[in-house]
Design brief:
The complex is a heterodimer of chains A (218) and B (256). Chain A has 218 residues and is mainly alpha-helical. Chain A has helices at residues 2-42, 45-60, 63-73, 83-109, 112-120, 125-155, 167-178, 181-210. In chain B, a hairpin with a 2-residue loop joins strand 6 (71-73) and strand 7 (76-77). The chains are: A mainly alpha (218), B alpha/beta (256). The interface between A and B is medium-sized, with 25 and 30 residues. Bound molecules: adenosine-5'-triphosphate and magnesium ion (MG).
Chain lengths: 218, 256
């Protein structure tokens, strides 16, 4: 019991950092992924090719390695970041190619005719993206977006290695100080389970809202 | 000589090595209905889509009210802005309706008025309501496309086009995706539009519509524009054996 009173506040604070890292990492990663997907869709061919290489490299290497390179290798080229910003930047970069690919698939799921209808009345390409392409691709991409953001929750534990004080970091400290490995990791599991459950519930509700009008009458 | 709304001169279009349009010439008189008929794959849709430059033609000229579309000069593409400017006055209706499923009927119609014509939301909403009333859908304005029949969806698509107050309307087989009992309601709307003097180019397999509503009928085969003349001379007294054979097949298929 005194274990809880001793470590409770630190664990809660750690969980707070975990949620923060996850939320910002997801938002920034999604934004970067969207930009990459749009540039590949509309940009010149050479840019599309460069971005393809970026996607392959990031997807082909472990997050841990990327984080090490960023945090310990960064200062060599003058990029000196604190643990938290480095962790957020790392998560953003790590997630971006997956999000980019999800958006790309979403774009392809939008029937060409619906874009042509918009071009035929003289809408600008920017308006078409904002009003037609994005809303419609979001509908088909949403399950995959939610799924990947759930995967990202668990990648946040790796940030403990560069001393971001998130939940895993606090749990490791607690276990090495008290040798109560089982309890510590049980707490970890419970927190994550709660977080994932909350995200998928929110996701389902959002999905129901945006697809309300799209179910074909048969 | 009548004023031409669309002048098509010597237009060629290639898909890779395949020539989809071969030296096509056609004048579309203003205020009249021109129907494009011909066998499947003859290039009707391709030609229609070249008129608003959804499809790029490779050589020749297409002029809308005298102005070349798609190019500033032969071989030099016009700017996106100039092209959008020209498209504003050309309405298009597709075989598959192509309504935006995440918007209600009214929002579908209002979208172009807001984004392209720059009207306020309320003004656009009011104009959209008018256009929808005109196609007989005053009571379905707030339905999303998933809650509309095919015929109703196509009428919304027509309302979306006419709300922009185009000078020219293009239809690509507007009734081909519809159940037979829904074809009539769409044709009725098109006839009203024709009676009001809208310039229309209609790709259709509805020979009845071509015979009764068209002022001119153009026949295409294998990328060539074989003939363009009065409905009577194309549909009832065709001279060209290719037209005769097309009509024979059509009559065989539609008799039982
Ligand atoms: N994007 C494309 N790439 C290659 N070939 C194409 C493309 N679009 C059309 N074609 C070819 O061009 C020819 C003309 O096609 P088009 O769609 O204009 O015919 P159509 O007269 O409208 O036929 P239908 O009555 O079946 O609609 C066809 O042989 C078709 O296969
Ligand atoms: Mg066609």
């Amino acid at each position: 019991m005194d274990l809880l009173s001793q470590y409770g506040p630190a664990l809660l604070r750690g969980f707070g950092y975990t949620v923060l890292c996850w939320a910002l990492g997801t938002v920034f990663g999604m934004a970067l992924g969207l930009v990459i997907a749009l540039l590949r869709h509309y940009g010149p061919r050479w840019l599309c090719w460069v971005l393809q290489v970026y996607i392959e490299v990031i997807r082909g290497t472990p997050f841990l390695v990327q984080l090490f390179v960023l945090y310990y290798g960064g200062p060599l080229i003058g990029l000196r970041l604190d643990a938290l910003p480095a962790g957020l930047l790392g998560l953003t970069i790590y997630g971006s190619p997956y999000f980019a690919e999800i958006f790309r698939a979403g774009f392809r799921a939008v029937p060409l005719g619906q874009l042509e209808a918009a071009r035929a009345i003289g809408m600008t390409e920017a308006a078409i993206v904002r009003r037609i392409l994005l809303p419609l691709s979001l509908v088909s991409a949403l399950p995959a977006l939610i799924n990947f953001s759930i995967i990202l929750t668990k990648e946040t534990v790796i940030l403990s290695i560069i001393t971001v004080p998130e939940l895993m970091y606090q749990v490791s400290r607690m276990s090495t100080e008290t040798f109560r490995y089982v309890e510590a990791n049980l707490v970890l599991a419970l927190f994550f389970w709660g977080l994932v459950e909350a995200i998928s519930r929110l996701g389902r509700r959002f999905e129901a809202r945006i697809t309300k009008h799209l179910i074909e009458r048969t | 000589m009548q004023a031409s709304a669309v002048e098509i001169r010597n237009v060629n279009k290639f898909y890779g090595p395949f020539q989809a349009l071969k030296d096509v010439d056609l004048s579309v008189p203003a205020g009249k209905v021109t129907c494009l008929i011909g066998p499947s794959g003859s290039g009707k849709s391709t030609l229609l889509r070249c008129i608003n430059f959804l499809e790029e033609y490779d050589s020749g000229e297409i002029r809308i009210d005298g102005r070349l579309i798609g190019y500033d000069a032969p071989g030099r593409k016009m700017s996106g802005r100039a092209l959008r400017e020209m498209r504003r006055s050309i309405g298009m209706v597709f075989q598959q309706f192509n309504l935006w499923p995440h918007m209600s009927a009214r929002e579908n119609v209002a979208e172009g008025l807001i984004r392209v014509r720059g009207l306020s939301k309320t003004e656009a909403g009011a104009r959209a309501a008018e256009a929808l009333a005109k196609v007989g859908l005053a009571d379905k304005m707030d339905n999303h496309p998933s809650r509309l029949s095919g015929g109703q969806q196509q009428r919304v698509a027509i309302a979306r086009a006419i709300a922009m107050e185009p000078r020219l309307m293009l239809f690509d087989e507007p009734t081909s995706a519809l159940d037979p009992e829904l074809v009539g309601e769409v044709l009725t709307v098109m006839k009203t539009l024709a009676a009001e003097g809208m310039t229309m180019v209609v790709v259709t397999h509805e020979m009845g519509f071509a015979a009764h509503v068209a002022d001119r009928v153009a026949f295409m085969e294998r990328g060539e524009l074989v003939a363009a003349d009065t409905p009577d001379r194309i549909l009832h007294q065709p001279q060209d054996p290719r037209i005769q054979s097309f009509l024979r097949t059509y009559h065989e298929r539609n008799s039982f």
